[in-house]
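As a warm-up, study this chain.
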Amino acid sequence: MILNYRYRIYPDNEQVELLDEWLETCRVSYNYALRELKDWIASRKCSLDRCSLESEYMMAADYPFPSYHQQQNNLPKAKKKFSRLQAVPSQVLQTNIRRLHDSWDSFQARGYGFPRFKKYGQMKSMLFPQFKTNPVSDWQIQLPKLGKVQINLHRPIPESFVIKQVRVLKKAIGWFAVVAIESDIELPSPVPHGHAIGVDVGLLSYVATSDGYIEKRPKFFKTAYRRLKVLQKRLSRKKKRGKNYEKAQLKVAKQHNYIAFRRSDYQFKLAHKLCDMADTIYVEDCDFRIMAKGMLGKHTIDAGWGKLRDILEYVAQKRDVFVGRVDHRGTSQVCPNCRSEVRKDLRVRLSECHECNYVVNRDIASGQEICNRGRETYRGTPEKQEIGSQVVLSGNLVVDKWRNLSLDSRGARSISDNGSPHCNNFRAKAIK
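Now compare it with the structure written out below.
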C-alpha cells in the first residue's frame, strides 16, 4: 500500500536559491534531451527526394534511438562537460529524464500530446527517489546535497510505513514536500454493502443524493474573481521581464492557489460527508471534459466534478465505502419510481410522472435513478441486495423525516437543515 502525504516545508534563503538553481538545471537538461529526441525523429521522417524548407539536423543511419537508458548513461559524460550538472543530485537528473520518456510513452499510447519544451520557470518539481534511512526527524527533513529543511508535520507518518521517495514542489505560496510512504498492509477492496445512495452533480445543486439531501454549489472562482481581475489588470500594465512584472505575476499565481486550495479543502470535507451518509455510493460515469467545452465551461471547470469524484473514491477506499460508476445517460429523463420515461428540458426543475403521479425534485430524482442503476449494475453482492426502486408510491421518502433521524447504531447524528461539509460524523439510515 502506497500513500502520498503533502507537507509544507520552509527552506532558508540559501536553500531556496539552491532549489531554484536545481529546477533551472533540470529544465535545461529536460529541453536538451527533448531536442535530441526531436532531432532523431526529424532525421528519420524526411523524404528521400526532398529536404526541409530551412534546414534539418541529420544523424547517421546507425545512430540509435535516444532512449531513456542511453540518455541516462550519457549523464556522467555530460557532467564532465557542463559543470552545473554536478551541483544537482544524480538521481534527480535521472528521474528528470525519466519524466520526459514517460511523456513520450504516453504520447505513443494515446496518439497525441507530444512533449513540449519547458519555458523559464515552468519546471516546478523535482524528485528524490531513494533514501537509505528515514529522512524525517524532529520536524526536519534531510535531503541530499541540501541538508536539513524545516517541515510542518501536521500529521504523523504511521509506524508501519517506510518513506520511499520525496518530491519537492514549488508553488506561489511556498514550498511543499510530497512524501510517498509504503507498507506491506493491503486494504481489501470495498464491496457493495449496507445503505446505498446515488449522487447526482449539477450547477444549481452541486450534489443531490437519492435520500433527498441537496448541497448548493459553492462558487469558488466567482467569489474570488473580483480580486483576481484587479491583480491581472495590474499585471498587464507592468513591463514584461521586469522586477515589478515578476512581483505582480506572483500575486496572480497566489490568488489562483488560494482558489484551488479552497476548492480542494471543500471537496475533501464533502467526500467525508457523503461517506458518512452511506456504505455504498453510486456516481455517474461521465466525461466532464466534454461538458467543459460548452457555453457553461467556466462554471463547469470551477465546479471540478471530476476531481470531486476522484477524491470521493480515494476517501471511500480508506473508509471501507464502495463507490461504483453507472451510466449517466438519461438519468433525469426517467421516473425513479416506475422507471417510465419522463421527458423534460433543463428549465423544468421538477420531475412529475404521469404514470405513477410521483413528484420530486429533478436532481433528487436523478440521484434516485443513479441508485437504481447502481443496484442493477453491481448485483450479486454478499448481502444479495434486491433490485428495486429507491422510492415507493406511498411517499415514504420524506426529507424532513430523514433529516430528523436519531442516532444510529454507529453513533452518528442526523443532518441539520443547513448541513455543511464542515460538519461530519453522521450517517443516514435507509428509509424502510
